[in-house]
């Protein structure tokens, strides 16, 4: 699982003085996701952050919701040593237990198609209620991201490539949120994307 790509220089480049996403931005997103799950009648007692990097999500949960069981993982030896994550590759590792919330931001685009598809299967299996998922797509690469601040040395796929695989186990509700089919969350018809 040695991966030298995600070393200290990588983290300085993408999470240093001008990060792709600031801690405040991620914390606002974490608040929104947590409250939406509550809106749908659920609570989060466990969360998994996959490809945690600096660990913004897991740090927020550990600080604000101390009763939540938090697991954070990354393939980077540097990130694990610096931020205390478990060293795991989601394309190879399938968690033995499920989590109410699984977060996977900007990870799967680093994997080739075969490993990416397997990672999505493992994310699905790990999710009990809600997955927050984000990956760079063809559309985003062309229209929404700052190409100077974003690592473009990745496998860029269509949004449909991700949707077709995630929709096997989830209902897409927008803003990166996917509700696990069969979960106890109650969604109104117009909260779902069809």
Brief rundown of the structure:
This protein has 194 residues and is α/β, with parallel strands linked by helices. The protein has seven helices and seven strands.
Describe it:
With 194 residues, the chain is α/β, with parallel strands linked by helices. 36% of the residues lie in helices and 19% in strands. The protein has helices spanning 8-15, 23-39, 56-64, 77-83, 113-126, 138-143, 159-166; strands at 46-50, 69-74, 86-87, 99-105, 127-134, 170-174, 177-180. The termini are far apart.
Number of strands: 7
Strand adjacency order, main sheet: 3-2-1-4-5-7-6
Which range does the strand content fall in? 15-25%
Order of helices and strands: HHEHEHEEHEHHEE
For the record, give the distance between the C-alpha atoms at the N and C termini, rounded to a whole number.
Answer: 38 Å
Structural class, judged by helices and strands? alpha/beta
Helix content percent band: 25-40%
How would a textbook summarize the main sheet?
Answer: 7 strands, mixed
- Rounded to the nearest angstrom, the radius of gyration is 16 Å
Low-confidence parts lasting 5 or more residues at pLDDT below 50?
none
| Mean pLDDT over all positions | 92
Globally, the shape reads globular
User: Counting H and I runs of at least 4 residues, what is the number of helices?
Assistant: 7
Topology (elements, then pairings):
Elements: H1 8-15, H2 23-39, E1 46-50, H3 56-64, E2 69-74, H4 77-83, E3 86-87, E4 99-105, H5 113-126, E5 127-134, H6 138-143, H7 159-166, E6 170-174, E7 177-180
Parallel strand pairs: 1-2, 1-4, 2-3, 4-5
Antiparallel strand pairs: 5-7, 6-7
Helix pairs in contact: 2-3
């Amino acid at each position: 699982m040695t991966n030298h790509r995600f070393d200290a220089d990588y983290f300085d480049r993408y999470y240093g003085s001008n990060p792709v996403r600031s801690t405040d931005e991620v914390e606002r997103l974490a608040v929104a996701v947590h409250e939406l799950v509550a809106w749908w009648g659920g609570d989060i007692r466990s969360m998994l952050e996959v490809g945690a990097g600096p660990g913004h999500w897991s740090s927020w949960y550990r600080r604000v919701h101390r009763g939540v069981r938090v697991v954070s993982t990354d393939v980077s030896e540097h990130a694990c040593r610096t931020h205390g994550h478990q060293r795991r590759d989601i394309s190879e590792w399938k968690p033995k237990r499920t989590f109410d919330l699984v977060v996977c931001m900007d990870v799967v685009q680093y994997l080739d198609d075969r490993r990416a598809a397997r990672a999505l299967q493992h994310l699905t299996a790990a999710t009990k209620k809600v997955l927050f998922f984000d990956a760079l797509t063809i559309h985003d690469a062309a229209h929404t991201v700052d190409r100077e601040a974003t690592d473009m040395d990745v496998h860029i796929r269509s949004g449909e490539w991700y949707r077709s695989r995630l929709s096997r186990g989830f209902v897409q509700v927008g803003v990166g949120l996917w509700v696990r089919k069969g979960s106890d969350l109650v969604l109104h018809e117009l909260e779902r994307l069809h």
